[in-house]
# Entry
Amino acid sequence: MKIINTHSHLNMLKNTPIEEAIANLKKNDITAIIPSSTGEDIFEVDKFIQKDDCLYGYVGVFPEEAKTFTDKTLSNMENIICNNAKIIGIGEVGLDYYWDKTFKDLQKEIFIKQIEFANQMNLPLNIHCREAYGDTLEILDKYNKNSTAIMHCFSGSLEFAKECIKRGIYISIGGVVTFKNAIKLKEVASNIPIEYLLLETDDPYLTPVPFRGKENQPAYVTYVASEIANLRQTTFEDICTQTTKNTKRIFPILN
Ligand code: NI
# Structure
């Protein structure tokens, strides 16, 4: 059963040997896409994904790292994209007002630059959006012309999910959906059209049940798929088939 994990920081695992985590991916026929976070680790992701055929990457600067974005960042990204066919999107990029609200304007500026760059390169966007729902959609409405967008680690309401889907934005769900108290996310996972659903782990964070308290890893995406299958009263195979089909629609190279 082929599964695609659309957001894994496999390169950031600390307690699990990387080779073991990759072996676990291959055992379960899982492909993982790895984002970068800073203007510097775009180079690391570029190199890291050469470790195995099942790994792909995004390049982008995370909102909290907006200060690492320099004049050279976009040309560095362009070089990497042109020389590595396994870099298949721009991410993770977006807005995060949860940790720090002191540089909202800079976050917006860097987000917009990366949207325009994704449009120019004709690549999808992997979007981080935390407590910035209104601003994120407003900026996408205004600046995103032709890139398919994915809301990574979706944390909004069903109503916000519907607003996204209206715009053709995909909803990627991670391990939080397995938490008992994640009522809102379970509601989203149960009710959105299956054509817009994607799977991820955002490891090493947000470890799904039954491994909470331990380090997350990309192969645990199977627990996310199982939980969503339960919620939607369908089979694990159905969720994997549908989400893989959706992901391949966004990233034809994965076909
Ligand atoms: Ni992430």
